[in-house]
Amino acid sequence: MNAMNTLPLQVTVGATLAVVLAALWAAQGEGARAAVRRLVLGLDRATTGLAAILACVALGIAVAAGLWQVISRFATETPAVWSEALVRTALVWMAYLGLALALRAGALVSIDVAHRYSGGVLRRGIEAAALACSLSLMGVMFWFGWMMAERVQFQEMAGLEVSMSWGYAAIPVGALFAMVGAVAQFLDRRSEELEAAV
């Protein structure tokens, strides 16, 4: 493997370990630790709220563009050339922004059996391992998503006449929002759907 492929992985692993250790440090205690925890949870409230609003707007845009496509195709028999690309792009943005909400709510696939039947240090270790896995995946998505967005910046989306970077930018932006949500989930665990599960 060349340095171009290993450098992102090395940076991601190093940053993941640093964030997990910082989250473990901030999760317990008073004073500076509690201040860092409050800061992260405040940042999470802002970013997750913004991600929710933007994901809803993206869904609304996709619905409106899809409705226009149906109307223009069947009512006027002249389909819009831009609507399909806009629907696809809006749905991609919605999915990547929604990832932050899913991580924060604890709604992604989790190791709930191991979490449910463990306690103390073992449970915290499982949570730290899940955080490390989530951050590692989001770090790789951020790095390579950013590279893809840069790579396609001079290509245009067919029908929309805008740079393809606007579509690919959903990957690193969604990954950033999701990282904040993952750390906040570790610091202030929410898993209502797991509590209701049998």
Tags for this entry?
78% helix; 198 residues
Domain tally: 1
Per DSSP, what share of the residues sits in E-state strands of 2 or more residues?
under 5%
Q: Please summarize the sheet with the most strands.
A: none
How many β-strand stretches? Answer: 0
Query: What is the H/E order?
Result: HHHHHHHH
Distance from N terminus to C terminus (CA atoms, Å) equals 46 Å
| C-alpha Rg (nearest Å) | 20 Å
Give unreliable regions as ranges. none
Mean pLDDT: 87
Indicate the overall shape: elongated
DSSP helix fraction: over 70%
Return the structural class. mainly alpha
Textual characterization of the structure:
- This protein has 198 residues and is an all-alpha fold.
- It has one domain.
- The chain contains eight helices and no strands.
What is this structure's SSE topology?
Elements: H1 3-27, H2 32-74, H3 83-105, H4 112-116, H5 120-151, H6 165-168, H7 170-187, H8 192-196
Helix pairs in contact: 1-2, 1-5, 2-3, 2-7, 3-7, 5-7
Brief summary of the model shown:
This protein is mainly alpha-helical. The protein has one domain (32-190). It is built from eight helices and no strands.
